Amino acid sequence: MKRILFVILSAMLLASCVLPEATQQPAPVTPVEPKKKEETPIEPSEKVPQPPRIQSISWNSIVQPLVEEMVKVYGVEAGKVLLVDSVKNNTNGSLRTLKATDAIIDAVSNKQVFQVVPKSQVHIAQQALGLSSEDSLGLRSKSIGLARYLNADYVLYSSVSSNNGQRDLEMQLMLVKTGEILWSGRGNINER
């Protein structure tokens, strides 16, 4: 009973509340024309800076002799699956390591000693394992883990290092099962 009485009184109270109507006039708007800026002529600078020279490296000429040497090493079985890991840049400079990796893959494929894991399959495996395809600080253990995931027999690990201004490409052929380094080679990087 008290609830019903409370609801009725509340309804009467709310019904008696009247909102005053807004009789406010809108604020007057006066249009303002934008000021025109004085155009100052831009004077050309005296000398245009030259962009940095892009260094061209003949990766094929560096990689070919190394691959020739690698396929002749004792203990390498023909027809086995090889993962060519991307070239790591361990220098302070900028290098086109993707071109170097492509040159290595082409040189190894042309020898027809190994079955090279396709780049698309490597990329999918890297995503599945949470590895970056641009990982420039790659470790040999990551390379071997990736090769195991792809059921490869060998992994070719490559890195570019700098010593006293001289840059070298170092390649290592490793057996995936044991991590043993079967072959190691080094090539001098000459720029054109």
From TrEMBL:
Signal peptide as annotated in the record: 1-22
Membrane spanning residue stretches: none
Gene3D superfamilies named among the record's database cross-references: ABC-type transport auxiliary lipoprotein component
UniProt key word NADP: no
GO terms assigned for molecular function: enzyme regulator activity
Entry GO terms, CC: periplasmic side of cell outer membrane
Biological processes per GO annotation: peptidoglycan biosynthetic process; regulation of cell shape
Renumbered residue ranges of the record's region Disordered: 25-52
Membrane topology: Lipid-anchor
Pfam families, sorted: LpoB
Keywords of the record: Cell outer membrane, Cell shape, Lipoprotein, Membrane, Palmitate, Peptidoglycan synthesis, Signal
Biased composition (Basic and acidic residues): 33-46
Compartments in which it is found: Cell outer membrane
Keyword DNA-binding listed: no
InterPro entries from the UniProt entry: LpoB
NCBIfam families the UniProt entry points to: lp
Sequence similarity: Belongs to the LpoB family.
Subunit structure: Interacts with PBP1b.
Function: Regulator of peptidoglycan synthesis that is essential for the function of penicillin-binding protein 1B (PBP1b).
Protein name listed in UniProt: Penicillin-binding protein activator LpoB
